[in-house]
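quick one, 422 residues, struct below
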Amino acid sequence: MQLPDLLFAIFGVGALLAGILPRVLEHRPMSMPIVFLALGMLLFAVPLGLPKADPLAHPDLTQHLTEICVIVALMGAGLKIDRPLSGRRWATTWRLLAVAMPVTIAAVALLGWWWAGLVPATALLLGAALAPTDPVLASDVQVGEPTDEEDSEDEVRFSLTSEAGLNDGLSFPFVYAAIAMATAAVTHESWVGEWLLVDVLYKVGVGAGGGLLVGKLLGRLFFRARNKKLRLAHHSEGFLALAATFLAYGVVELAGGYGFLAVFIAARGIRSAQRSHEYHQVLHEFAEQIERLLTVLLLLLLGGAVVGGLLGALTWKSALVGLLLIFLVRPVSGFLSLRGAPGHTAEHWVIAAFGIRGIGTFYYLAYAMSHATFPNVDVVWATAAFVVLVSVVLHGVAVTPVMRLLDRYNERTRTPEEKHAR
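---
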């Protein structure tokens, strides 16, 4: 049996299942990521001659595969949010980013250092990598396709989608802080001032500003170019979602900013150019299809890495840190950050509890490995993989019944005026 032929067959079956499973599993307490994780574990466990899936042995490949998947997911997330970007209407999102995420990073870093015995730089890397919620694996708790109704999204789905879109870029300064700490442990140089100036202020500013500029320019080109032949929205070509993704990411990264942040903001800029145009749905559908295919590949590889020994370095103390993140740190910090925010208490608890961890975590770990040396990095990888596995299974099983109950509760408590407006 030739390995290339086997790989073609596996990915063909995976792509076919990626088209079938969302329909089959709809309204069932099971998610597509669970199925592909299990399939990956099965494929790599049987003697088919597949190469070992080891992210620690191939950090560059891991970094770039996860990088592409995340930025495509960020473009899709940015395009499908109907609510215009504003301070008041995005109040829940700002609270999650400004309060819940830093608290989560600090709590996990403290637990990693004090309880799991990691050095400070490695503990901070663990916290920074695990803090962002994932735009890739959280589709079941996100808003649906783009519509022309600005207020059609419920607070839970909107908050989880917008948070996942922004926190991947905004957690990067903390990853850089971990890299700087690890480097300073060898060079003994001061790093805080440069980190604040460059990694926080400059890179965030360039990411946000560059993404906004690219999004505005592309939006003008797509919808309002003076030459009608250049109004690409009229041609309904979905692959331009990839053009927008790679352009925003590449330009901002070349300028030294955070490309993750730029991609999401560029998507919002494109969406704001002509909010109700049907071309947004074309772009979103193409981005979602590419994202799904990439997710299939990465989940199969993650399943293979798990059966190949990725969890071998996991200790009971580091596993407990991961469980505390899922069951205590994120829910409590998320809920407390939403006190006084739009929505009722039940919605706040669901938002806090469904901070799904996923592909972005592995990107940050691979990126950090390529820029500094971290003691006990195998423990960090094992802990991250454990957290993602638990999150995928737990949230994948719980999301359908929980969201169904929440929707029923919201429908019962909605006022007659609200029901009529809908």
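The chain has one domain: 10-47+59-421.
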